[in-house]
Specification:
51% of the residues lie in helices and 12% in strands. It is α/β, with parallel strands linked by helices. It has 2 domains: 154 residues, Rossmann fold; 118 residues, N-(1-d-carboxylethyl)-l-norvaline Dehydrogenase, domain 2 (Orthogonal Bundle). Helix 5 runs antiparallel to helix 7 and helix 9 runs antiparallel to helix 10.
């Protein structure tokens, strides 16, 4: 199947054709955009070229093809490795960097791009490749507001757009905050599945109960958020001593099952640090103070 490019749609270059870059290219093509692609392994472009994409022979050629350049790479090191030798071709380009990295590195990359005459938009895609092109999907963006507004319509072909501000690091920050919650939650789920399996309970049998506890989390977030913002950690609903006892039971249940207990033990250690700071009667949300590093 090939897609017909529309003359009134902005042309785009996509650099990096892993699963995400491939999905993005297909979404642009389906929406009628002319797309130039480049990948270090040139053969990865074959299927996209068959669908109507234009293959660039070099990075310089890919950059020269269009003002709007979408980067879908492993991290910012990959960006420097690919674009570093081609800095003479960066002038006048808009780099929409959808690679994952830290807020500090996003700020450094924005300054680097600007030093070579390019504008840089940081992006944090909140969905896997299968979510690209879905109206309910979203991507964080940050950087120059005028650049974002000029290209928002084109970027909305990929996902919804959530502009977080002009600081180039903000999109990366919000993305990493989401990953902090996601990976911590999913690792906890895998640990619970392992303990369940040790008792002959399958993941399928455990699924409705795991789903139930996860579904209850938004209610807890809604309840605790205004208290956290107000600096209140009242122990009227929960307290840290009770929480520590609960986590201690999880640790012993894990050990009794012959399962690695390092994950809940790490959580228990954090709770104990809060107790040592005198927060036994306060809410577990007082652990925010434990996580903060003391000011030098």
């Amino acid at each position: 199947m090939s897609f017909q490019a529309s003359q009134d749609k902005q042309a785009v270059t996509v650099i990096g054709l892993g699963p995400m870059g491939t999905a993005m290219t297909e979404a642009f093509l389906a929406a009628g955009h002319r797309v130039t692609v480049w990948n270090r392994t040139a053969a990865k472009a074959d299927a996209l070229v068959a669908k109507g994409a234009e293959r660039a022979a070099t990075v310089e050629e890919a950059l020269a093809a269009n003002e709007l350049v979408v980067l879908s790479l492993t991290d910012y090191d990959a960006m420097y490795a690919i674009l570093g030798p081609a800095t003479a071709a960066l002038s006048g380009r808009v780099l929409v960097n959808l690679s994952s990295d830290t807020p500090a590195r996003a700020r450094e990359a924005a300054a680097w791009a600007e030093s070579h005459g390019a504008r840089h938009l940081t992006g944090g895609v909140q969905v896997p490749p299968s979510g690209i092109g879905s109206p309910g999907s979203s991507t964080f963006y940050s950087g120059p507001r005028d650049v974002f507004e000029a290209h928002r319509h084109t970027l909305q072909v990929l996902t919804g757009t959530d502009f977080r501000g002009t600081d180039p690091g903000l999109a990366a920050l919000y993305y990493q905050l989401m990953m902090d919650v996601f990976w911590t939650t999913m690792t906890g789920y895998l640990h619970a599945v392992t303990v369940a399996d040790a008792h002959g309970i399958t993941a399928e049998e455990f699924l409705p109960y795991a789903s139930s506890i996860v579904a209850s989390v938004p209610n807890f977030l809604t309840f605790y958020t205004p208290r956290i913002d107000a600096g209140r950690h009242d122990g009227d609903v929960d307290n840290l001593a009770m929480g520590a006892a609960s986590v201690d039971h999880v640790v012993h249940t894990t050990e009794d099952a012959g399962v690695d207990s390092s994950l809940p033990t790490a959580v228990l250690e954090i709770f104990h640090r809060g107790l040592d700071r005198g927060h036994a009667g306060d809410s577990f949300t007082s652990l925010i103070g434990t996580f903060r590093k003391p000011v030098a």
